[in-house]
Amino acid sequence: MHSTPAKAVGPLSQESPLSRTTTTTHTVDMAQIADLNHRLSNSQKGSTVTASDIGLEGATVTEHPPGSLAGSALLVRLCWDGAPEFPYIHGHFSNSAGSDGALVVDLHTAALKKLSQLLHAHHTWGQGSRLLGPSDVVDSTRH
Predict the structure, then answer these.
(1) For a 10 Å CB count at each end of the chain, is N or C smaller?
(2) Which residue did the predictor score with more confidence, 46 or 83?
(3) Is the dihedral of CA 108, 110, 111, 113 positive or negative?
(4) What angle do CA 128, 129, 131 make, to 5 degrees?
């Protein structure tokens, strides 16, 4: 299973690379995933998020290599699959800085809330999704 992280969130405009027409359903969860990926990719050195920071030390790795996640594993990015209204959200972790995040684990509400808190984001998790309107554009790629 190969995954691609969610992409940037932003309003549509003639100048925007996101201004193309889309037929995909977008939800608040997808927008929040894109925001967290942006925050993770722009985090200052030393402000990394580890598996233990969000309560995932020992979590089952769902992709190879199988095993459990070390508390020191670094969160690289998030992805999702399934229906946009109820996505399954996954975290990609690595055992070393600069790695591609081959260690994939499922993320549930508690971990997502903790991650949002650590990255100073005001997100709502576990409340069900609402569909976004045309002014709430998210360009995401599924898992």
Answers:
(1) N
(2) 83
(3) positive
(4) 155
- Give the largest CA-CA distance in the chain: 47
How would you classify the pairing of strands 67-68 and 60-61? antiparallel
pLDDT surpassing 80 at residue 132? no
**What would the pLDDT profile of 9-56 be if each residue is shown by its tens digit?**
443 333 333 333 344 556 788 889 999 999 998 866 556 899 999 999
Measure the CA–CA gap between 129 and 85, rounded to whole angstroms: 6
Count of CA atoms in the C-beta half-sphere (13 A) of 54: 26
Residues in CB range of 127: below 8 A, 6 or more apart: none
Going through 11-63 in order, the beta strands assigned E by DSSP cover: 60-61
Q: Which residues, 6+ apart, have CB-to-CB distance to 117 below 8 Å?
A: none
pLDDT at position 46, please? 56
For the chain, the distance separating the N- and C-terminal CA atoms, rounded to the nearest angstrom, is 8
A 10 A CB-CB count for 59 gives: 22
